[in-house]
Write a sequence for this structure.
């Protein structure tokens, strides 16, 4: 039964009918209409004064109750219980796993909530807000919202304003913040404007960069005990080497200094450095090329000589020729005493009509293809001689009558001395020159003989040649009428001469007339002896190397004659069937000599073996037309060189038979050699003399 | 001690060699400590990052920054390889 829904806010549990009845009756008429039905009795009982005027109207649907029922009193209790609240709530209890009724049910019913914004000033929130404002409590800061009572009366007006506005919290906050600092500016609230500006901020940009990484390399190795050991050994060796070098360095420094000097000097001409080497190489090449010849030269001994007692052979060895000397004929040959393999060749021409240039050429046996020294001359050379003791001094006689001395040591191609017309050169070709021993002043001197009939001695005094006429060859008995009736002796032409090996002043001169004169240096006009040697010009006169009395001569009258200078007639005469160009004694035997003829043959004689014939007659040159002009024995080796009129020089080796030494008592060896030779010769001569004596 | 192979500049080489010798002498029995010492000192002096191998028998193939490698022998039987590669 709706009981108190009419009632307002207050509910009480007081159960008083009267009061409750009064209340509703006072308030609503409609509500009371229903209740009036139930409470007619009471209402009428006390009822209002204004209600009495009316009579009861019964609604149509009113219950008809009996009197008894009408008098029944119903008690109504007014409680404070919430009619909407459930009276029996049952909750599930997990603890007891069953539904349990809740003992007390909440009876509160909330009808209306309105939240207010009042804070107690001592509460936390209030304190916080005050702190936010940053105000000391004395300050005014008005907050109706904060509910702070302004303490300063000055702010009272603002407070009011704020309050009226209805608590703009924000505004209050802003005001507070500005005023929060000490000695804060109190901005005029009504006339305050804030200004702010922002500078231009450059836009941000991202940049990235990566440098090049440092270069990397791979490395691999093995670290083993033996590897380590090897490395240590190497290091030790290096250290030792360094020590040696350190010792050698102070020595080497001097050498280096010298070397630098030399380098500077020879830098200009590089070929000179190589020259020496090139020379050696050239000789090596030659040796290889002519290897067989070299072997023959050294070792070959003709075995067949054992079977031929009376004969020997000449083995051809090297052939020397020079391109530029092809048209010239060999006019002189001379071996060098000091350098046994070096010989000089004089080139010129015998032909009277074909007189051109000449050449002085030196060959070595070690190099047969190219001369060692070459000196071209303006006039043809006819004779030359190398000084016995000074192997670099060469005396040369020319066709034009000049004589010259060359120094091989000098770099120039010119002679160091040359005779001129002023200095007494010959007027006719010089046929022979010969060095003499140094004179009293230790000056070198040599003799020359020429067709002008003079034998001249030349002395090398400092820078010039001083000449001295030794003798003038005059024809005996021949006197010619000169101009103005003066009788001039006609000069004979000297074609050859030779000086005695032991007797210094004695020399022989061969003439064009065929006579040989024995002269002395002391006597200038007279001969000691004259031999009518040949019918034609005497081409060569040579003293024997061993026997002091014997000399040999050859001539174009095809004969070779051997003389004893004490006897006017020759000891031996040999007819060679051709014009004999030259004859030479062998240096090793007193009885061996060789002669060359214009038919290209070399005739070798050994008087101890065969007194009448040559033991060797051998053509040496290929073409028969070639005339052999000169021959020379090598003082040491068993070879001879032969020159011909084509400019060739051929070297030949003498076979053993040609170099026989007399086999006397075994035990008598070399020291007695010369004496043996002399004795040998003497024997021969004595044989000859006796028959002569006997004949005479 | 001898240097077997290196491409370090003169000064660096000398310094590194001295350092290796010192370390090996100090930690004669312990290669690891010696290597550690060398590595740390090298990092400090010449920058990161260095690698050190010490031993008596090993083979290796490494990539190293140019002019930052030293391979030397010490004490007749010990090989030390130091290289830089970050």
């Amino acid at each position: 039964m709706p009981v108190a829904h009419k009632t307002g806010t207050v509910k009480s549990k007081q159960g008083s009918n009267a009061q409750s009845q009064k209340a509703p009756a006072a308030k609503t008429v409609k509500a009371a209409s229903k209740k009036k039905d139930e409470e007619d009795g009471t209402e009428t009982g006390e009822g209002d004064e204004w209600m009495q005027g009316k009579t009861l109207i019964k609604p149509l649907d009113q219950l008809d109750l009996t009197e008894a029922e009408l008098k029944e009193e119903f008690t109504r209790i007014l409680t404070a219980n919430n009619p909407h609240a459930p009276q029996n709530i049952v909750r599930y209890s997990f603890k007891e796993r069953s539904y349990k009724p809740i003992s007390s049910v909440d009876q509160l019913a909330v009808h209306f909530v309105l939240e207010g914004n009042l804070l107690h000033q001592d509460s936390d929130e209030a304190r916080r807000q005050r702190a936010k404002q940053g105000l000391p409590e004395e300050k005014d800061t008005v907050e109706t919202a904060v509910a702070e009572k302004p303490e300063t009366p000055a702010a009272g007006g603002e407070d009011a304003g704020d309050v009226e506005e209805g608590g703009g919290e924000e505004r209050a906050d802003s005001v507070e913040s500005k005023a929060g600092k000490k000695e804060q500016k109190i901005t005029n609230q009504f006339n305050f404007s804030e200004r702010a500006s922002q500078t231009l901020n450059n836009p941000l940009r991202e940049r990235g960069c990566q440098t090049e990484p440092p270069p990397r390399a791979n490395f691999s190795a093995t670290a083993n005990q033996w590897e380590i050991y090897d490395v240590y050994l190497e290091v030790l060796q290096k250290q030792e080497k360094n020590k040696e070098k350190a010792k050698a360095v102070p020595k080497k420094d001097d050498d280096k200094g010298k070397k630098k000097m030399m380098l500077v000097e020879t830098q200009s001409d590089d070929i000179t450095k190589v020259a020496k080497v090139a020379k050696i190489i050239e000789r090596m090449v030659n040796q290889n090329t002519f290897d067989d010849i070299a072997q023959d030269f050294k070792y070959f001994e003709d075995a067949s000589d054992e079977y031929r007692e009376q004969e020997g052979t000449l083995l051809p060895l090297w052939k020397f020729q020079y391109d530029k000397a092809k048209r010239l004929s060999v006019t002189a040959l001379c071996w060098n005493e000091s350098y046994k393999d070096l010989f000089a060749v004089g080139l010129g021409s015998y032909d009277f009509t074909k007189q051109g240039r000449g050449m002085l050429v030196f060959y070595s046996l070690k190099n047969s293809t190219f001369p060692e020294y070459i000196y071209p001359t303006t006039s043809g050379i006819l004779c030359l001689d190398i000084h016995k003791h000074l192997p670099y001094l060469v005396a040369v006689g020319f066709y034009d009558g000049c004589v010259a001395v060359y120094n091989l040591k000098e770099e120039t191609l010119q002679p160091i001395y040359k005779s001129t017309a002023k200095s007494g050169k010959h007027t006719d070709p010089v046929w022979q020159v010969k060095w003499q021993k140094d004179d009293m002043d230790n000056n070198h001197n040599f003799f020359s003989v020429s067709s002008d009939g003079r034998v001249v001695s030349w002395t090398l005094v400092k820078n010039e040649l001083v000449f001295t006429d030794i003798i003038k060859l005059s024809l005996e008995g021949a006197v010619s009428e000169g101009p103005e009736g003066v009788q001039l002796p006609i000069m004979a032409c000297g074609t050859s001469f030779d000086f005695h090996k032991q007797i210094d002043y004695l020399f022989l001169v061969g003439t064009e007339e065929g006579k040989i004169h024995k002269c002395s240096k002391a006597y200038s006009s007279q001969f000691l002896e004259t031999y009518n040697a040949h019918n034609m010009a005497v081409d060569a006169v040579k003293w024997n190397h061993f026997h002091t009395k014997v000399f040999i001569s050859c001539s174009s009258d095809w004969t070779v004659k051997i003389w004893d200078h004490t006897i006017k007639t020759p000891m031996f005469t040999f007819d060679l069937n051709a014009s004999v160009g030259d004859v030479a004694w062998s240096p090793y035997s007193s009885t061996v000599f060789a002669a060359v003829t214009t038919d290209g043959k070399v005739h070798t004689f050994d008087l101890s073996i065969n007194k009448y014939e040559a033991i060797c007659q051998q053509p040496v040159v290929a073409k028969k037309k070639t005339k052999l002009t000169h021959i020379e024995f090598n003082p040491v080796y068993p070879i001879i060189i032969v020159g011909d009129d084509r400019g060739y020089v051929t070297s030949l080796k003498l076979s053993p038979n040609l170099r026989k030494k007399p086999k006397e008592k075994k035990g008598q060896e070399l020291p007695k050699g010369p004496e043996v030779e002399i004795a040998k010769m003497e024997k021969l001569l004595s044989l000859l003399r006796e028959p002569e004596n006997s004949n005479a | 001690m001898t240097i077997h192979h290196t491409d370090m500049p003169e000064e660096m080489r000398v310094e590194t060699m001295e350092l290796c010798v010192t370390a090996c002498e100090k930690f004669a029995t312990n290669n690891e400590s010696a290597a550690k010492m060398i590595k740390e000192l090298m990092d400090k002096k010449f920058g990161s990052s260095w690698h050190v191998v010490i031993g008596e028998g090993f083979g290796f193939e490494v990539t190293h920054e140019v002019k930052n490698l030293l391979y030397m022998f010490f004490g007749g039987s010990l090989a030390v390889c130091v290289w830089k590669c970050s």
Summary: Residues 10-26 of chain B form the longest helix (17 residues). The longest strand of chain B covers residues 58-65. Chain B is about 40% helix and 35% strand. Strands of chain B lie at 2-6, 50-55, 58-65, 69-74, 78-84.
